[in-house]
Amino acid sequence: MTDIPQIAAQPRNQWWDVWDQFKTHKGALIGAIFFLVILLGVIFGPWLWGIDATFIDIRSRNQGPSFAHPMGTDQLGRDSFARMMAGGRVSLAVGLTAMALAIGLGTLIGVIAGYFKRLDGLLMRTTDLFLALPLLPLLLVIIMLFRDKLNAAFGPEGGIFILMVSAIGATSWMQTARIVRGDVLAIKEREFVLAARSIGTPNRRMITRHILPNVLSPIMVSATLGIANAIITESALSFLGLGFPPDFPTWGRLLFDSVDYLQQYPERVMWPGLAISLTVLSVNYMGDGLRDALDPKIRGR
């Protein structure tokens, strides 16, 4: 009788387990699909839609929803649907870039504070100081101080983009730093880290090879929630008139421009408000799903 060779089963990648657990969270799955649709819409939508967001047609101003203009037109005859897509592109770009800056800064400070004990006190007291500062007044001061200088150096759009991203990212890293620090303090006392230290592994390799891969879970969760916070902050600053120029639409700027026409044309406020609310809600659900999927205790059930 011929022996049938036994093929050793390949070990299952843990990210497939994460995906299986993520799929069980219906809210997170729906949120991820909705966020992906919004992201693809704001990236490719302006190219597919035949009307430019800045095109002015006075004869078509203040029109309601129609086949030619699904979301109507504004007081200058500009297509609201085109401006929503263009505004979403800017708002999401600010949110993603500011989130990346905040996550990078928070992870760096958290890892250094958790791994190097002599720097822990200084860095955490600095983090507490930033947490104690009122966020919105601090952002207003930063924008008023540096807006004109950056606008002169990079132009109105580029300058305010750099300023918004830098200001939001520099004031949103503290929660990530505290979370990462706590995980690093626990991980650096684990057996595999102590074994690596006993054979003389340098600190740089210890952090990049053993510490960072084991704190990816809280970093990813913080990243998703950071996108939502950055979008809300940018929308609030634009709504206060301190964001991008009037001819450079964002969701917050569209809200600001629609306030004067709230009673006559309430749908102008409804569209950007719904976009901000649903995008933030979908990102928050994604964060909840990732938190559960990346938790080995929950994933093992």
UniProtKB/TrEMBL annotation:
One GO cellular component term: plasma membrane
Give an example GO biological process.
Answer: transmembrane transport
Which Gene3D superfamilies does this chain map to? MetI-like (1.10.3720.10)
Pfam families referenced in this protein's UniProt entry, alphabetically: BPD_transp_1, OppC_N
Q: Which UniProt keywords apply?
A: Cell membrane, Membrane, Transmembrane, Transmembrane helix, Transport
Q: Which InterPro entries match?
A: BP-dependent_transpt_permease, MetI-like, MetI-like_sf, OppC_N
Segments crossing the lipid bilayer:
28-49, 90-116, 128-146, 158-180, 211-232
Could you tell me where this protein is found in the cell?
A: Cell membrane
Domain ABC transmembrane type-1: where? Answer: 88-287
Membrane topology term: Multi-pass membrane protein
Q: Which family does it belong to?
A: Belongs to the binding-protein-dependent transport system permease family.
Q: What is this protein called?
A: Peptide/nickel transport system permease protein
What organism is the protein native to?
Litoreibacter halocynthiae
Lineage of this protein's species?
Answer: Bacteria, Pseudomonadati, Pseudomonadota, Alphaproteobacteria, Rhodobacterales
